[in-house]
Amino acid sequence: MDDLNTALSVSASGMRAQAGRIRIVAENIANANSTPVAPGLEPYRRQVPVFASFLDKEIAATLVTLNRVELDPTAFTVRHDPAHPAADAEGNVLVANVNPLIEMMDLREAQRSYEANLGALDQVRSMAAATLRILE
Amino acid sequence: MDLSKSPLLAGLGQRLQFLAARTSVIAENIANSDTPDYVARDLSPASFDARVGAALRVSDPRHLQAGGAPGASAKTHLAPDGEASLSGNQVSIETQMMKLSETRMEYGLATSIYRKSVELMRLAVRGGR
Predict the structure, then answer these.
(1) What pTM, to 2 d.p., does this model score?
(2) B32 near B90, Cβ under 8 Å?
(3) Tens digits of residue pLDDT in A45-79
(4) How far apart are alpha carbons A115 and A121 in whole angstroms?
(5) B26-65 residues touching A, CB cutoff 8 A
């Protein structure tokens, strides 16, 4: 039963990490149209979640965690909008480097991984139930 | 009567222990299916040779018996799924889910045999009633 409890903790850590990733994707989508407040400033920069595995010495298992959030170094989109308060001398405005299509794909992938962890959790739960049925 | 001394129940107990440990390893793979440079792992049962090698030879009655639990000698090893992503991750969720359900079924089999043998013993205790 100890190994099964460990497996539950591992799946939970996977779900937590994927939920964090979904949160970051949501932040990106929400800020897809962000522009700077004044000329010469930068708009919202896309965030990229990076996972890392680590050994939990207490339960001797490799868990996963949302290690760090990096900034996407790709160039900002330039939009011509002379009426915008943040437009430069040529009338161009920098817009966040977020591509909604890429974000949606990332969201789908995170969802799929989350479901896989949930499936693993369910299997482990039914194994624990099978063990307890020995007592009946 | 010590039930854990019964060869059938002891063997099944070790089998359950091994399958639970394997489930834990597979859960780790699924949790790390998006971690850069993570390579899938698997747990393989100890071979007969390894088990014989692990047991210390006793040539004197004063020597201690050190057989080592078979569950403990099962080793984790790298088992890449043959599918690598750009980040260097080598876990295929499909393969891992298949392994998980395979382990789940074997676990179910072992627990039902365990239950049946306990029932058999109960039947003997009750004198067939």
Answers:
(1) 0.81
(2) no
(3) 999 999 999 999 988 899 999 988 999 999 999 99
(4) 10
(5) 26-28, 30-36, 38
